Amino acid sequence: MKGNDPSKLDRILADARRSAEKRDQGYRERALKIYPWICGRCAREFTRSNLRELTVHHRDHNHDNNPPDGSNWELLCLYCHDNEHQRQLEATGSDGQIAAGHGSATHSPFANLKSLLDGKKKPS
Ligand SMILES: [Zn+2]
Ligand SMILES: [Zn+2]
Fold first, then answer.
1. Looking at the whole model, is its pTM more than 0.85?
2. Residues whose Cβ atom is located within 5 A of ion ligand 1
3. What is the pLDDT of residues 37-60, one digit of tens each?
4. Which residues, other chains included, contact 76 with Cβ-Cβ below 8 Å and sequence gap of 6+?
């Protein structure tokens, strides 16, 4: 068991997760200081008791873009935040394309294999 430390990777992953969480909490706290605790879509008001249902949305969907003036942030309740991203998926159409891609991806390898086998059979 010496020399091989299986927990090393876990530790690295845990560290990465921790720093990501720290970064998330960093911009969340800053956004909550800048903006009133109100959902930008449904105008629902929040207090300390339900504040965890108020989330920080990134207008350009880039979580690494956190300007100090908060111009990339929008406070949304969980539901409106969900809707916001759903709308984005529908607008780009990537959701349907991915689903269709999965369907053909599971079929084409076998279709390919079959034609390859058929192709091999014919000359012999
Ligand atoms: Zn809302
Ligand atoms: Zn968002």
1. no
2. 39, 41-42, 77, 80
3. 999 999 999 999 999 999 999 999
4. 39, 40, 41, 54, 55, 56, 57, 84
